[in-house]
Design goal:
Elements (H helix, E strand, L loop, with lengths): L12 H15 L1 H8 L5 E4 L2 E4 L2 H27 L5 H28 L8 H76 L1 H18 L6 E2 H19 L3 E6 L8 E2 L3 H12 L8 E7 L4 E7 L12 H14 L4 E5 L2 E7 L3
Parallel strand pairs: 4-6
Antiparallel strand pairs: 1-2, 3-5, 6-7, 7-9, 8-9
Helix pairs in contact: 1-3, 3-4, 3-5, 4-5, 5-6, 5-9, 6-7, 7-8
């Protein structure tokens, strides 16, 4: 449940500037090549011939750039408008592009006239001016639509991520809400009996219980294996005050995995399930093994010695834990029961 950051829209003036500059340079690439290589050919345009001129080429590039840039801004403005249907946006874009292109093309033709008096020849206007500018307009509209669709897909993906994060957070809080009251009820019962039988153990129990509840009240959504292990051992200490030597906790945790991440309360939930569903007595002590593997996983295992009144089908904490791992990291936990041993294997996240 990492943080989901909003992505900035690409429908802005910077994008418009970059694309307009690229289109203007591309449209006049042949003139730039001739300039850099020092050629001075005659180029035909309709029935007239013109020598290559740097000033004329610069003005042509500026004209193409300004037309493309302004058309991008117009497109982006309508595409970002809220409350307009897609059909209405397209209608406004087409109308505004047609009018804007005609006006801008005419204005730049007037500028060209000062450098080339043949610019207002009818064929020059149609084939050299409007035709070129409307071609630019088509490119601008198509690329604007592609950027808009891409941006829309990114926003939809972001919204889905945010919804996913909210759902995972609610599931996490649901898991905590199911564990805390049950754990508190059992802890208070144990504390009540210790107060009358062993006051020193009662004090120790309260200290450990305080640490445990400080941990459960934190709002972290992921935590290191080391912190989760310390909390689980504190919980186990509480249980050992209650059950004595009949409850045995065996640690086989490789220190190299201490910085790996797990879901909070994951190990504690598995240990609690083992204690809840199995007999813990002088005749049948319950050893619980916490171990890591080379596959970067941690296993909680115990012998199967079920209580007679154990609720076989009710494993809410375990099912919630499995769901959290699927939602959070798209990982599965493994539950195995064979040869009289029950074990749950959860992945560690580097």
């Amino acid at each position: 449940m990492g943080k989901v950051t909003a992505k900035k829209s690409h429908l802005n003036w910077r994008t418009a500037f970059g694309l307009a500059l690229f289109i203007s340079l591309l449209m006049n690439m042949i003139f730039l090549i001739m300039f850099f290589y020092g050629h001075d050919p005659n180029l035909e345009r309709g029935p007239m011939r013109h020598e290559f001129r740097l000033d004329f080429t610069v003005i042509r590039i500026l004209a193409n750039f300004s037309i493309a840039f302004l058309l991008y801004l117009v497109n982006f403005y309508f595409l970002k408008r809220q409350g307009l249907s897609s059909k209405r946006k397209i209608e406004y874009i087409i109308l505004s592009v047609l009018l804007s292109t005609f006006v801008l093309s005419y204005l730049w033709s007037a500028v060209h006239f000062h450098f080339d008096e043949n610019m207002f020849h009818p064929k020059a206007i149609v084939f050299g001016g409007l035709f070129r500018d409307y071609f630019i307009a088509v490119v601008v509209v198509l690329t604007s639509q592609l950027i808009y669709i891409s941006n829309k897909q990114q926003n939809m993906a972001l919204e889905n991520e945010m919804l996913q994060a909210e759902y995972m957070k609610s599931r996490f809080m649901s898991l905590k809400s199911q564990i805390d009251p049950h754990f508190l009820f059992n802890s208070l019962n144990t504390l009540s009996s210790l107060i009358t039988t062993d006051s020193e153990k009662a004090v120790e129990y309260v200290q450990q219980l305080s640490f445990v509840f400080r941990y459960t009240l934190q709002n972290k959504e992921i935590i290191t294996l080391e912190d989760e292990l310390n909390f689980t051992l504190a919980y186990c200490h509480l249980m050992q005050i209650r059950y004595g030597s009949n409850l045995q906790i065996i640690r086989k945790i490789d220190a190299k995995y201490h910085t790996y991440s797990v879901v909070p309360l994951s190990l504690q939930t598995l240990v609690e399930n083992a204690i809840k569903h199995n007999v813990v007595s002088n005749k049948q002590p319950l050893p619980i093994v916490l171990s890591t593997t080379e596959r970067a996983t941690v296993i909680v295992s115990n012998p199967i010695q079920l209580k007679k009144d154990s609720e076989h089908g009710e494993r809410i904490g375990l099912s919630n834990l499995a769901e959290l791992y699927r939602l959070l990291w798209n990982k599965e936990i493994e539950v195995r029961s064979a040869d009289g041993v029950f074990e749950v294997e959860i992945p560690l996240i580097a």
